[in-house]
């Protein structure tokens, strides 16, 4: 059994590992979609299309959050309760943060919003897995 300083984590159960595999796949999809957004911005920039600094920062920031979330998911799958708690929080907050900022009128083109919405859907799906009963049971609250 894998343990953490704050109590026993039960991450060696096959059902728990399947849930973590699903979560990692969804977070990886979030990362791949985020990379796609950034690559699109790069291609547009090098072909002399209009790309704003906000689009650069936004696409880079979302990709960075995907990388951090994946790293945390891997650590959580190995029994790190602190990482699991962060994955739960990030996976809930990011879809709202992505959509809330992207729908500010006139800030971003529709294509950018649609690509970012796909990213939000992937991390939202990961939130359902990360906050599901199988993974919550793997990290009982310490007393």
Question: What report would you give on this structure?
Answer:
The two termini are 19 Å apart. Helix 1 runs antiparallel to helix 4 (110-130). With 143 residues, this protein is an all-alpha fold. The radius of gyration is 17 Å and the shape is elongated. It contains five helices and two strands. Helix content is 75%, strand content 3%. The protein has one domain (13-130). A two-stranded antiparallel sheet has the order 1-2. The longest helix is centred in the N-terminal third of the chain and has 33 residues, at 14-46.
List the helices and strands and how they pair.
Layout: E1 3-4, E2 7-8, H1 14-46, H2 53-77, H3 81-102, H4 110-130, H5 133-138
Antiparallel strand pairs: 1-2
Which regions are unreliable across 5 or more consecutive residues at pLDDT < 50?
Answer: 1-6
* Category from helices, strands and their pairing: mainly alpha
**The number of domains:** 1
Radius of gyration: 17 Å
The major beta sheet can be summarized as: 2 strands, antiparallel
Mean pLDDT: 92
**Overall 3D shape:** elongated
| Major sheet strand order | 1-2
Q: Which percent range describes the beta-strand content?
A: under 5%
Helix content: over 70%
Order of helices and strands: EEHHHHH
The count of strands amounts to 2
Span between N and C termini? 19 Å
Enumerate how many helices there are, as a single number.
Answer: 5
